[in-house]
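Annotators were shown the component list below and the corresponding predicted structure, then asked to write short factual statements about the assembly.
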Amino acid sequence: MTEHLLQVEGLSVEFHTAAGTVKAVQNVSFHLDRGETLAILGESGSGKSVSASAIMNLIDMPPGRITSGRIRFDGQDLLALSDEQRRRINGRRIAMIFQDPLSHLNPVYPVGWQIAEAMTTHGTAGSDARAETLRLLTRVGIPEPQAALRKYPHQFSGGQRQRLMIAMALAMKPDVLIADEPTTALDVTVQAEVLSLLEELQAETGMGVLIITHDLGVVAEIADRVVVMNAGEVVETGTAAQVYANPAHPYTKKLIGAAPGKGVMHDPLPPVQPVLSVRDLRKSYGGFTALDGISFDLMPGETMAVVGESGSGKSTLARILLRLDQADGGQALWQGRDLLTMPPRELFALRRDLQMVFQDPTQSLNPRMTVFQLVSEAWVIHPDILPRPRWKARVAELLAQVGLKPEHAARYPHQFSGGQRQRIAIARALALEPKLIVCDEAVSALDVSVQAQVIDLLDRLRREMGIAFIFIAHDLPVVRDFADHVMVMQKGRVVEQGSVRQIFDAARQPYTQALLAAGLDPDPAVQAARRQARLALVLQPIGILRRNDPPSLRSP
Amino acid sequence: MLTFLRKRAVGSLISLIGLVVLVFFLSRLTGDPTALFLPVDATVEMREQFRALHGLNDPLLVQFGHYVRDLLHLDFGDSLRKARPAIEVVTEAFAWTLQLALITMSIVTILAIIIGALAAWRGGLFDRVASILSLIGASAPDFWVAIVGIVIFSVSLGWLPTSGTGTVWHWILPVAVLFIRPFGLIVQVVRGAMMTALSSAYVKTARAKGVRARPIIFVHALRNAMLPVITVIGDQAAALLNGAVVIETIFGFPGVGKLMIDSILQRDFNVVMAAIMVTALAIFLMNVLIDIAYALLDPRIRH
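Structure shown to annotators:
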């Protein structure tokens, strides 16, 4: 058997918690060769990050314990080495980048120092490290690299921070780069740029890349081979194209089936009297213009998706429509009355018509209230809706409606999974029988399979109860499956709006086209073709050179 | 930075004015100084003369007006008891308190940071012992510790003087007693903040880079952990600057806390007012120092 660059054999990791021993990873094996990209694909709790942490000696022991297995790297078993020996490998021979680069960079030190430290800690002289840092910053495409050396992490954008992390990881020219969800928190166009950068750098250095992701699109875009993990075990492995085209394991089939963006798009609704009519909405924060003249109409029972990248103003729009923030100008007519100038008493009565579901149900549900208290709180505030004796029955009814059980009412939010918590948040919004629900990235934090279920639930509520939705999202495939009408925003302006078919099949504006082209399709074949279009649309205008070899020629 | 200082100065001036008004009228509620200063058998004429001399016959508002007028000329009036400028009496006492606070807080800060950081990093027995001792320290009643300390080290063993000032030996008991509570508190805050910092994402990055343990603790984690710690250090230092009333009284230490209590009991209003003003100013300066330290430690506040 030939020696692989990195080979994980029969790895098992346990964590001792108050609730008992959790087997996070069980008997996991995979390997990685030089110049190859291997993706570990799995949902939350699948053990994909734990496997990578084991390679980097980042598992805290205790509570963690590696119960079996070997991690062979370049002829030696990493697990048999001392901490000091592994420290010398970390960063020098195997490097890692993470999700959420903001929290993974030290906020109180300049980025130049942090990147140079990756070299000085392995014995590079300070002056050499500083010169190399400047070269690295230039290479990963940080503007004004000389000035950037002395800046701090908070002074960069999300995409730039991930570039800084990449520069830091590649400082010692490692043989293996582990990337743990490197693009999950980034906008689609930025995600495409970062993935391209990784591919270019891999071509330059010949390193092996181990990418950990939950996103089939990322696998399709970048991976040669894929390892699918579920509940701590490897369920399937093969080339990316093979696994997508012929998934063997039921879990893989389920995962591929749940990927959004393949359903039938909604037909446009017949025009009726709009329930909400927004005209020329404006808002600035200091010198920053968040909303610059937004206008749209929303029909009863219609789902309008608001898409756009971070900073486009979509969340500000939601906050203003719910009067959580004051507009500077414009009007928002709700059944003919202006929401924005409504006196508090009238607004109070109207609040029951407008509800909101937030991105992170862990934060939006008070952890010290039971589900019953959370859902029935609305009736405490609006006592005329439902007499107290009927609360219990109604809560049970609402829970059933969102796919939970009546006995869940006595539990607390932490006793539920992420998807169930979001259902609780939806039940809470439904308690007031609203006519409009604003969902601010309501499914972004959920696993793909759970996401599909929540979307189905929302769509059913829309059909059965005629609730209108404003669905703020950055994930275009989800929008495609769920929306009737799409509004594309950029820098506080509406770039384009139209029916879902018009936007997805015949986008008129270059920005919309770029957004669509930057999105990743779960099918490796589609993705290979799409890459060509994206290179032309997204990357060239911002000065990233096109690679010489056509991506479709990648050998599995 | 300058605009920030100016804003803070204006804010503090407003509180200072409020303080002057409050303390002036409150102290008048304690009663008439004449009763304390003149012998019991003093005649009505003598009392009248004393009152006229010190302007105590004027309506309260007029007295207040005079006081504020003098204050604007930085004249805090004279001490009734000591017959010399109140501000002199106060600055003398304050110098003692300042020394005591500086010495105590320096020792506390250095030791608490080292022990708290190590407890968070090493865990195990060291952490448990440090946690228990710091909890005991943070909750120990200092007047009790002071008295027990005197009984053991001064009375029984005879190693240290019971009270007063003069030699280095006189400082040891007051500093040691004042040390206990802030030390216990700050060790706990450092430990907690370091636990958070050491389990943070940027420490994970540093470990993935191959950074050694010592720079991870003292370079990466400690600077981030210092932000909440500084706030507590500031609070504790402010408490000491206020005058450690109980400790100063027990050890007969001529600090500003003891001075304040004495002058309140003696209805020496001018000294009370001057003492409050000086400590308020000191606490204001302390807070500015804390804010500057914050900005130096965390670039996100600077920008």
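Statements collected:
1. The interface with chain A takes residues 199-202, 204-212, 215, 220, 223-224, 297-300, 303 of chain B (CB under 8 Å).
2. Residues 86-122 of chain B form the longest helix (37 residues).
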